[in-house]
Design goal:
This protein is of the alpha+beta class and 324 residues long. The protein contains 9 helices and 14 strands. The strands form 2 sheets. Strands 7, 8, 9, 10, 11, 12, 13 and 14 form an 8-stranded mixed β-sheet that branches. It has a 6-stranded antiparallel β-sheet with strand order 2-1-6-5-3-4. It is globular, with a radius of gyration of 24 Å.
């Protein structure tokens, strides 16, 4: 380019007058947080951060550093825990899955597992709810803005406790409706790690909402069913056997596994086999199972009625009793 064509558009004095975005001091930021909040909805009751080593109940302070790779890369793993009946339900299974996910991601917990258990118990104690949920987030940690995990020297741990809705069937005793999702499932091994990259799951939930139903069911490249956005799918065949889907292209659910154990202890046969969407109408019952859904009856798929029977209520009652 001809240097003579380069024109300075602003003199230094003029450039000082074109910035319209406020530049705050830290004190001004604190004043704004105090007056206006941090943008949090107020749904969180308690937050713990390993960066502070403490809990807070003030929503205005529930912040995560923007340079944590958890924020700008989704580089982390998580669990959602239910507190009910005076304790954290199925905690060993959740921690085992968290450890498995963390190992596959090369993440090291910034405290001992015993300390983590104590942190969770303390957070629920401070929340002071008969029934609540906790989101446990293990992130890569602060370090910078590249994609390189080595940029973050120490992992971050955040625990957020919030109120839990009533189980699905308590709110919708008529059962749930679903559509088949058009969102491709997560590829290969990534589908079996509970990472914080939940874009496909979020799109599935949006898909269900747009269709006016409760759930969207994933289908893999071979045409087999996988899972819903955040719950597992199961079935009951005409012989009364509980059918679990092989967890090759979706996350193995802790609640579904516990339900299967309860069913087996009561004498019900549990089998594992893949299912295609067309097979659901041939079953005796179709179930949605999860930490927040409990055992839900799926009664409609893509506008077609699915069979409903007594096993859903039986398994749901067993789960409620197990929770306490």
């Amino acid at each position: 380019m001809d240097p003579s064509l380069c024109i300075c558009l602003f003199t230094p004095a003029e450039s000082e007058n074109i910035m319209h975005t406020p530049l705050w001091s830290f004190d001004e930021l604190l004043q704004s947080l105090s007056a206006n909040g941090s943008g949090c909805s107020g749904k969180a009751l308690v937050m713990y951060s390993s960066l502070w080593g403490a809990m807070i109940t003030e929503p205005r302070g529930m912040l995560i550093p923007v340079e944590d790779h958890l924020v700008h890369r989704g580089d982390g793993v998580f669990e959602t825990l239910l507190f009910e009946g005076g304790g954290i339900y199925n905690l060993p299974a959740h921690l085992k899955r968290l450890e498995r996910s963390a190992n596959r991601m090369g993440l090291t917990l910034p405290c001992s597992w015993e300390a983590l258990t104590q942190i969770l118990e303390d957070c629920f104690e401070v929340a002071d709810q008969e029934r609540a949920l906790a989101r446990l987030l293990l992130g890569r940690g602060p370090g910078g803005f590249s994609v390189d995990p080595a940029e973050s020297p120490v992992a971050s741990l955040y625990v957020v406790v919030y109120r839990a809705n009533a189980p699905f069937m308590d709110r919708h005793p008529e059962g749930a409706k679903a559509v088949l999702s058009k969102i491709p499932p997560k590829p290969g091994g990534l589908a079996t790690i509970k990472t914080c990259n939940y874009i496909p799951n979020a799109l599935m939930k949006a898909e269900a909402s747009a269709a006016g139903v409760d759930f969207a069911l994933g289908v893999d490249a071979e045409g087999y069913l996988t899972e819903s956005a955040t719950e597992n799918l199961a079935g009951v065949d005409r012989e009364g056997n509980l059918i679990l889907l092989p967890a090759a292209h979706h996350l193995a659910g802790t609640t579904l596994q516990r339900v299967a154990e309860l069913a087996a202890s009561a004498g019900r046969k549990v089998v594992e086999r893949p299912l295609r969407p067309s097979e659901l109408s041939e079953l005796a019952e179709v179930l949605i199972v999860g930490t927040t859904a409990y055992v839900t009856a799926l009664v409609e798929l893509d506008g077609k009625v699915l069979p409903r029977g007594p096993v859903q209520a039986e398994l749901d009652a067993m789960l409620h009793a197990d929770i306490g």
